[in-house]
Structures are given as C-alpha cells and as structure tokens.
Amino acid sequence: MQETLKKEKAFQEKLAKLKKMPDDVKLNREIAILYVQRHQIEKAEPIREVIPDDMDLNREFGIFYLSKNEMEKALKISEMMPDDVKLNYEFAVTYLEQGQIEKAFPYSQKVLDKDPENTTGLLPNLHLEIGATYASKIQSSLSNAEKYGKNAVKYLQTVIEKYPDSNDTFENALYCLGATYSDMGVRFSIGDFDKSIEAFEKLMNHTTEESKKEGIPYEIIKVKQSAAYRAALDYLGEPGNPIINDFETSIGVLEDRMNRHNTDERTRQAVQKEFKKIRQLTAEAEKLAAEAETSE
C-alpha cells in the first residue's frame, strides 16, 4: 500500500512539473509512458502526437496493444521500428503464449540476432518460452511430436548451459526439461525417463525454495510411474499411450491386453513385476502426500 501511495505521489509531482515545463520532451515521454502503463491510453495519445517518433513511447504503445490483442495497431508500430529488440521480444512472447510458434519465429530470431550478448537480459526467458511452447505440443501431436521434443530440449538446454545465473528462469527451464523428457519417454524412448529424473534432481539440489524442494520428489515419483508403465507396454510390444495417466487404469488395460493376446508365461511374469513397481511407487506417493498433510 505504501509503495502504491509513493508512486502516486511521484506521478502527481511529475504532472505538476509538466504544467510549468510543457515543452520538456523527456518529462512528456515519462508521463505518457506512465499513462500507458496505467492503461489510460486516451491520456497518452495526445502526447504521442507531439512526439510521434519517440521510440521509448512507441514501444510502450506497442506493448500495450499486444496486451489487448490489438494486433493491427501493434504491427503498425512494429513497422516503424522493426529492429527494436524489446518490442520484437514482446511480439515473440505474445505469439508463443498463443502457441503460434511459426508467427513468433521471425521476431524471436531478430532478438537473437540483434542481442547475441544478452545485453537486454531477455534471452534466457525467450529461450525458455520457445522451449516450453514446443514442449506443450508433444502430447497433442501425432506426426511432429519427436521434432517438437528435440526442439524443446535444445532451447531449454540453452538456458541451463548459457544462463545458469538467471535465477527463476534457470529453475523453470530445469523443471520444464524434466517434464519434457518424461513426455518424450512416454512417446518415444524409455531412456528419456532417466534424463527427466536427472533434470528434476538437479533442480532439487539447486533451488532454495522449500515449496519446490517438497514438490519435486512427487514429480520424480510420477516419472518413475510413467517409466514402469512404459516398460510394461514394451514387454507386450504395445505402443505408448500418453492419454492414460491413472496407473490403476493402466494396469487394467495391460492385463486385458495380456489376456487377449495369450501372452507367454515369461512375459506375464515380467509385466507383473512392472505392475508391482507401479503399485509400490503409487503407495510411496500416497505416503509422502499423507506425511505432507500431517506436517502442515
């Protein structure tokens, strides 16, 4: 509350100063930007008409229009300043949040080309956003899932390898990488589950947030459950089904397949071993959850 009052007081002081110095370009820019950030766009527009070529002010207008999904207005501003790194970043992130990777790519590429040294500090989050968007498409895609997975890993690894000091972005990249490898394990290779666990363990060792430390073991258990389920499917020669997430249901499905296909005794024993793993891991997860509730 105090911080809000402090900002409001500073804003009112700027307005009072502007009355005495109406031609001060810097002051006009600062007030117009504050109006835009307050979503009082109608008060900022007259100032923009006076300084129409001001890049800082135009950028704020562009970001505002993007936030309102007024793409035509935002694009007009982008055409005025096509090489502006920050505005290109905002365009890229906006399209990525909508899942439109193809539309985001030209803007993200400009950011990467214009700021290879990350002077703006925007690159770690841009790589994370691209990686996360590719990762979100793995389970829903039939023909491009493997390509999406590889692209997701590439961008997430870039954050982890190049920007280890990016704090929350670094940790979010590790979490997303763990989830991505788990999804890839269900669809493609059981070996990806080991990489998933490795990423989650690295995050658990790195983070100082207690909530993350408490939650990550559950994620690892889920990965092990998925690995056990995938292993059971492999024993039966069945393709992975990323839709089934309830493991008791999974066991029922696999048992039904074994019965229908007259599976040999050796395979039956192997699959039963995987069922036991699944049930043990589920019990472990339930125990941890019960302990967590007790300690709260």
Taken in chain order, the helices and strands follow as HHHHHHHHHHHHHH
Anisotropy-based shape? elongated
Share of helix, binned? over 70%
Number of helices: 14
**Sheet/helix structural class:** mainly alpha
The rounded Rg comes to: 26 Å
Please provide the count of β strands.
Answer: 0
- Mean pLDDT reading: 86
Description:
This protein has 296 residues and is an all-alpha fold. 78% of the residues lie in helices and 0% in strands. α12 packs parallel to α13. The longest helix has 31 residues, at 265-295. The protein is elongated, with a radius of gyration of 26 Å. The protein starts with a helix and ends with a helix.
Characteristics:
296 residues, 78% helix, mainly alpha
Write the layout of secondary structure elements.
Elements: H1 2-20, H2 25-37, H3 41-50, H4 55-67, H5 71-80, H6 85-97, H7 101-114, H8 123-136, H9 145-162, H10 168-187, H11 192-206, H12 210-236, H13 247-260, H14 265-295
The gist of it:
The chain has 296 residues and is an all-alpha fold. Helices cover 78% and strands 0% of the residues.
